[in-house]
Specification:
Elements: H1 5-13, E1 22-25, H2 28-38, E2 43-47, E3 60-63, H3 66-74, E4 80-81, E5 91-92, E6 96-100, E7 104-115, E8 120-126, H4 133-139, E9 144-149, H5 157-166, H6 174-190, E10 193-204, E11 209-211, E12 215-218, H7 227-230, H8 240-247, E13 251-254, E14 259-263, H9 266-278, E15 283-288, H10 295-306, E16 313-320, H11 325-338, E17 345-351, H12 354-363, E18 368-371, H13 374-391, H14 398-407
Parallel strand pairs: 14-15, 14-16, 16-17, 17-18
Antiparallel strand pairs: 1-6, 2-3, 2-6, 4-5, 7-8, 7-10, 8-9, 10-11, 10-12, 13-15
Helix pairs in contact: 2-3, 5-6, 9-13, 10-11, 11-12
The chain binds guanosine-5'-diphosphate and manganese (II) ion.
Manganese (II) ion binds next to loops.
């Protein structure tokens, strides 16, 4: 789960990281008022969206008066900010953060990530701040310095000093830098973050080490342990399809194609999408119903996938270990009876109670296209989708039901 810059700054400042003074606003008038409250002569107004690259996209503006703040924020509120990280649809601006403008002497990059190969938290830093890390690693890879943290002892001061030295930081700033690193590291581990990025971390004109920008991502599966973090969620920044699924305890990933996928398990989801592509189709999404899905849950999943306007065929692919094929089949039948579904539905079941599952589908009298293997299912889904597009009819597969009648 991502949070806003102003939220990340508040979190990090509670762990001892220095951040600029700032205040949040929900309207241009409030932004101007906030600036007056903060005092000073120059302010930075920053669109709060869950994406970086705002500076280049017009989402960060330096202002020197009330009117400038009002003008700058008028152009932000209610608009979609499109940066190289948001995708072409952009992200809506509903909050603006107003900060005192600082004089910047130097910009550094500082990031904390999970390094899978060493299985540790890794600190990545560079004296080439302000640019995106992807650009730094393409243009100035030699400027990047790294350190991994031994989890049993945590981040050690000597590691911080070593990084400061490699970055060419002035000796008088090392203490502040080390405190910043330790604050970020503690926030990362204590709050189950998966990423902390400060870009830029600056040395200000008055010789302070300050996080000018902040980004944090949290492990969604650990949010139950951190209610204060969970509260920071902002649904306006999420794909509405994904938030609706999350609210129902289902995990959903929205994609660009036309074939909706209902599967169990992330690995099977990947394989299903690969196979759809191999068969010449494009997945519209995948919805993971997880293990032990009840008919009710399956029906919920179905309704969610149907509500996606891009979906022109639905492929249900279940390999039941903990799950039960008969429950999945019941869920599919329930959803098709309760909801108007005018796209072809392809179901492939394997594993626990598969015979009962097939029987339920066959006896339902519903136009469900059945398949035995994944490849067959993907081909039928793509075939049915093409057919459906050209002729506007739902295809029934007599072959599949015949072989089933023989089996039952
Ligand atoms: P991002 O583009 O979404 O990563 O937004 P940032 O918060 O990193 O801001 C982009 C850039 O705006 C920074 O790299 C700075 O160069 C500049 N900037 C932000 N705040 C200030 C400030 O207080 N003073 C000055 N001079 N520049 C700032
Ligand atoms: Mn930034």
């Amino acid at each position: 789960m991502d949070i806003h810059e102003y939220q990340a700054k508040e979190v990090l400042s509670n762990f001892g990281v220095t951040v600029p003074r700032g205040a949040l606003a929900y309207s241009p008038e409030q932004a101007a008022y906030r600036a007056r409250e903060l005092g000073g002569e120059r302010w930075v107004v920053k669109a709060q969206v869950h994406a970086g690259g705002r500076g280049k996209a017009g989402g960060v503006k330096i202002c020197a008066s009330d009117t400038e703040i009002q003008d700058a924020t008028e152009g932000m509120f209610g608009q979609k900010l499109v940066t190289h990280q948001t995708g072409p649809e952009g992200k809506g601006i509903y909050r603006v953060y107003v900060e005192e403008a600082l004089q910047i002497d130097h910009e550094f990059y500082l990031g904390f990530v999970l390094d899978r190969s060493s299985q540790r938290v890794m600190i990545v830093a560079s004296a080439e701040g302000g640019m995106e890390i992807e650009d730094i690693s393409a243009d100035r890879p030699d400027s990047i310095v790294r350190a991994t943290v031994e989890p049993a002892v945590g981040l050690q001061e000597f590691q911080g000093r070593e990084l400061a030295f490699k970055l060419g930081l002035d000796a008088s700033l090392v203490q502040q830098f080390v405190r910043t690193l330790q604050g970020c590291y503690r926030a990362f581990t204590e709050l189950d973050a998966t990423m902390v990025e400060i870009n830029p971390l600056v040395v200000s004109g008055d010789n302070r080490v300050i996080a000018l920008d902040a980004k944090m991502t949290f492990d969604a599966n650990a949010l139950f342990r951190h209610p204060h973090v969970a509260e920071l969620r902002d649904k306006s920044q999420e794909d509405p399809r994904e938030s609706r699924a999350a609210d129902r305890g289902l995990s959903y990933v929205g994609l660009e194609g036309n074939i909706g996928c209902i599967v169990n398990g992330a690995g099977l989801a990947m394989a299903t999408m690969d196979t759809i592509k191999l068969a010449g189709g494009e997945p519209a999404n995948f919805l993971d119903i997880g293990g032990g899905a009840t008919p009710d849950r399956v029906a919920k999943a179905f309704r969610l996938v149907i509500s996606d306007g891009n979906v022109e065929a639905i492929l249900v692919n279940i390999f039941a270990g903990i799950n039960r094929c008969d429950w999945v089949a019941e869920g599919v039948v329930q959803a098709l009876r309760e909801t108007q579904v005018d796209v072809p539905v392809i179901v492939r079941l394997a594993g626990t109670n598969v015979e009962e599952g097939q029987k339920i589908l066959a006896q339902s009298g519903l136009p469900i296209i059945r398949a035995t293997t994944l490849m067959e299912a993907a081909e039928r889904a793509v075939g049915a989708w093409r057919n459906d597009l050209s002729q506007g009819v739902v295809v029934r597969d007599p072959g599949a039901s015949k072989s089933l009648e023989a089996a039952s």
